[in-house]
Design a protein that fits this description.
Region (Disordered): 23-49
Protein name: YbaB/EbfC DNA-binding family protein
Order of helices and strands: HEEEHH
Shape: elongated
Strand content: 5-15%
Largest sheet: 3 strands, antiparallel
Organism: Actinorhabdospora filicis
Distance between the termini: 10 Å
Number of domains: 2
Structural class: mainly alpha
Number of helices: 3
Number of strands: 3
C-alpha cells in the first residue's frame, strides 16, 4: 500500500511547507507573492550618505556617497545594515498597504503551535490508516505480502 511517496509523507511535506511559510511571516520577511513582485522599499533621503532600495527578498540597489570614505569600516558596515533594514521595513509597510492592512493582526505564535499539533496528528493518523490498509490487503491476499 505504501509507494515511493506515501500519503503520510505527502501530508508531512505539505505541513512542513506551511510551517516554513509561517516562519518567514514571523521573521518579517515578505512571502513570495506575485502581487508584491513590483513593490520596492527605499531608505535614505536625497542628501543621505547611503541609499538602499529593496524588493521582496532581495537588494535592488545600494548607493554610497563619497563622504562614506571618512567612516571607519565598523561604522560603514553598521550604516549599510541600517539602510538595508530601513528599506525592508519600508517594503513591509508598502506590502501591507497594498494588501489593505494597516498591521497584521494574526497571532503567528498561536498559529504555529496549532500547525505543529495538526502536523503531528495528521501524520500519525495517516500512518495508522496506511498500516490498517496494508493489513486489509494482506488479509485479502490470503496472508501473502
Amino acid at each position: 500500500m505504501t509507494g515511493p511517496n506515501p500519503p503520510s509523507a505527502q501530508i508531512d511535506q505539505l505541513m512542513t511547507g506551511l510551517r516554513e511559510t509561517l516562519a518567514q511571516a514571523r521573521a518579517g520577511r515578505p512571502a513570495e507573492d506575485p502581487g508584491t513582485a513590483g513593490l520596492q522599499g527605499k531608505h535614505g533621503e536625497d542628501d543621505a550618505q547611503i541609499k538602499a532600495v529593496v524588493g521582496p527578498n532581495r537588494i535592488v540597489s545600494l548607493e554610497l556617497d563619497p563622504r562614506v570614505r571618512r567612516m571607519d569600516s565598523d561604522e560603514l558596515a553598521a550604516a549599510i545594515v541600517a539602510a538595508i533594514n530601513g528599506a525592508f521595513e519600508d517594503l513591509g509597510g508598502r506590502a501591507r498597504e497594498a494588501a489593505g492592512e494597516e498591521s497584521p493582526d494574526v497571532d503567528t505564535e498561536a498559529l504555529s503551535e496549532k500547525l505543529d499539533k495538526l502536523q503531528d496528528a495528521s501524520v500519525r493518523q495517516m500512518a495508522m490508516f496506511e498500516q490498517a490498509m496494508s493489513e486489509v490487503v494482506a488479509r485479502l491476499m490470503g496472508g501473502r505480502s
